[in-house]
Structures are given as structure tokens and as C-alpha cells.
Specification:
Elements: H1 7-33, H2 37-63
Length: 69
């Protein structure tokens, strides 16, 4: 990936990061409230995937100088 993204690209990455943080919060919260074991497992898997996505997006933004983090 190029080191210098345009401002609009950086803002789109930041928007995705915000969305994935919201997904992570919701999955984590609902996972503790769900009573069905299968649903809990699905929510736990989603939370794990969201953590990975958040880490990847933060890494990409950090490469841009971190001015939007």
C-alpha cells in the first residue's frame, strides 16, 4: 500500500475504524447478554474478527502519521 494516502482515503479509513469499533462494542456486549450458546459463540467470533480489523485499520492509519487517530 502506498505510504501517502489522500486525505479522503485517510478519512474513509477512519470511518471504517469507527464502524468496526462500534461492531466490536456491540458484539462484546451482546455476547455477555446472550443466553444461547451458539449465539454467544457467533458473537465471540465476530468480536475476535473485529479486534483484528481494528488493529489492521489502526496500523494503516499509523503509517499515515497517525494524525487522525
Amino acid at each position: 500500500m502506498p505510504r501517502n494516502l489522500g486525505l479522503h482515503e485517510s478519512l474513509e479509513l477512519h470511518e471504517l475504524l469507527t464502524f468496526k469499533n462500534t461492531c466490536l462494542t456491540k458484539s462484546t456486549t451482546m455476547g455477555t447478554l446472550a443466553q444461547d450458546a451458539v449465539l454467544q459463540e457467533i458473537l465471540n467470533q465476530d468480536a475476535a474478527q473485529s479486534r483484528e480489523a481494528v488493529a489492521a485499520l489502526r496500523s494503516l492509519l499509523a503509517q499515515q502519521g497517525g494524525n487522525l487517530l
